[in-house]
Amino acid sequence: MPLVREIETALSVLAPKELAAEWDNVGLLVGRPGREVQKVLVALDVTEQTAEEAAQWGAELIVSHHPVIFHPAKRVTDQDPDGRLLLRLLESGLAAVCMHTNLDAAIGGVNDALAAALGLVDAAPLHENGIARIGTLPQPLALPEFLQRVKTTLSPNGMRYVDGGRHIQKVAVGGGACGDFLWEAAGAGCDAFVTADLKYNHFLDAQAMGLTLVDAGHFPTEDVACPVLVRYLQEKFPGLQVKKSVSHREAIQYFV
User: Fold this and answer.
1) Which of 42, 90, 96, 245 could in theory staple to 30 by disulfide, Cβ–Cβ 3.0 to 4.6 A?
2) Are 166 and 141 in contact, with CB atoms under 8 Å apart?
3) What is the rounded CA–CA span in Å between residue 229 and residue 180?
4) Which of 242, 238, 229 is nearest to 54 (CA)?
5) Which residue pairs from 17-23 have beta carbons closer than 8 angstroms and sit at least 24 positions apart in sequence?
6) Are strands 39-43 and 241-244 parallel, antiparallel or unpaired?
7) DSSP letter (8 states) at residue 72
8) Could you read off the pLDDT of 135-181 as tens digits, one per residue?
């Protein structure tokens, strides 16, 4: 069976660490590199729930998108959520490999998975850093049809949007918080931009530019990458048991 370090190396081929932003924290963040792995749980986040799920299943490794350690830890105790999570991982012997902005930018990573999920063809990077994609729908859609496609594909608990006032065919996507690419999407002639974590001014600017803007949620726009990671690891390590977390779900609820 593969070692933790071998799985990390394989993941770094898919999403090279050099693609990560300077401020990011990626790679093996918790655990022993030389430990043998038989089971891997894949999740968007390492949480107390996913750690419990992994431990109950008998996994040795969690592979996630968001880093389990992002800010420097001053202490590791059970008196705060971060400390409890790290203690749970350590006491269970669980390793954690995290692929964040490098997976956002990677070919075949988060944004290609999002573009593919929405049915975009000829998807290409929107920004020079490789994050966000721009592609085309096979046929133009009216806004209600497009919103229904996003809802059906990503299963968000709710969506916020602005109507750009035109049919939608050329679409930009950015998994997670990619609101800063709004103006590039408009400049590229997009009819719509699907992303998450948008601010009020983003909607005002999109409305003024005649661009349909859809906030489909951070979790839904990035969770599409988890099945990609599962398939990738299964192909690289045929004897390895790999599955996507069933305990980790969208945390944000909407009251309408």
Assistant:
1) 96
2) no
3) 27
4) 242
5) 17/102, 18/102, 19/101, 19/102, 19/105, 19/106, 19/130, 20/100, 20/101, 20/102, 20/105, 21/101
6) parallel
7) P
8) 999 999 999 999 999 999 999 999 999 999 999 999 999 999 999 99
What's the pTM value of the predicted model, to 2 decimals?
0.94
* Contacts of 106 by beta carbon, 8 Å cutoff, 6+ apart: 14, 15, 16, 19, 112, 130
Q: Which amino acid is at 81?
A: P
Summarize pLDDT for 88-104 with one digit per residue, the tens. 999 999 999 999 999 99
Q: DSSP 3-state assignment of 198? A: coil
> Nearest Cα to 119, choosing from 171, 84, 157, 61?
171
